[in-house]
Design goal:
Layout (H helix, E strand, L loop, with lengths): L1 E2 L1 H15 L7 H24 L11 E8 L1 E2 L5 E4 L13 E5 L7 E2 L4 H5 L12 E5 L2 E5 L9 E7 L11 E2 L2 H31 L1
Parallel strand pairs: 6-7
Antiparallel strand pairs: 1-10, 2-9, 3-4, 4-8, 5-9, 7-8
Length: 204
């Protein structure tokens, strides 16, 4: 289904107000909880997909961020910023594809590739460009001022912390339902605890 994080948050807010006496829920806290919950569900479903017989991951869990600007750091390396820390998986496996519009895909290489192979024929990647993930950056390999692509597209697991609340994304309906129930349970329990504390105070 096509939805936005804001729509999910608004649905949660309506249901919370219907099941509790609390009316002062912080919408920003709910939006943050939705973002974190969706990221956690996507990560879990990725690993579940990898554990099946085919090892296939549901394509609806991926999203393409277009035209990401290529930057240059103080070490002279070209890179783009990775959009998601909350969704990051070991070894950069949350990145499915990195490419220039109209061009071929970049080849993923080990993080120590530059130190190991710089100056060797292997470093040239048969004329292609590569990448590896370092912290919050995707470092580009075999890229210079001459062949700097300027902008790159990246397909990766839904990067919710990069997406705005109003960005439309295609998310499995059962995943939306799961996120809604988790967030509602969290805030409803918090609200009931507050009410219980208030009642205890009044009793005294």
């Amino acid at each position: 289904m096509i939805t936005t994080q804001r729509k999910i948050s608004e649905q949660i807010l309506r249901r919370l107000r219907g099941v509790t006496d609390e009316t002062s829920f912080d919408e920003r806290e709910i939006q943050l909880a939705v973002k974190q919950t969706l990221a956690s569900i996507v990560r879990n479903r990725y690993f579940q997909g990898k554990q099946t017989e085919t090892g296939e991951v549901d394509g609806s869990l991926f999203f393409t961020l277009e035209e990401n600007e290529v930057l240059k750091d103080r070490l002279g390396r070209f890179y783009i910023e990775t959009p998601s820390s909350s969704i990051a998986l070991p070894f950069g496996v949350d990145i499915r594809k990195l490419w220039k519009t109209g061009g071929s895909s970049f080849i993923e290489v080990p993080i120590g590739f530059i130190d190991l192979y710089e100056g060797n024929d292997a470093y040239l990647l048969a004329g292609k460009s590569g990448f590896f993930r370092e912290g919050n950056k995707i470092i580009l390999v075999n890229v210079s001022e001459v062949n700097n692509p300027k902008k790159l597209n990246i397909t990766m697991l839904l990067p919710f912390d990069r997406l705005d609340e109003d960005d439309s994304v295609t998310v499995p309906s059962d995943m939306v339902d799961e996120a809604i129930e988790i967030v509602i349970a969290k805030f409803a329990n918090t609200s009931l605890l507050k009410q219980d504390e208030t009642n205890d105070s009044n009793a005294n």
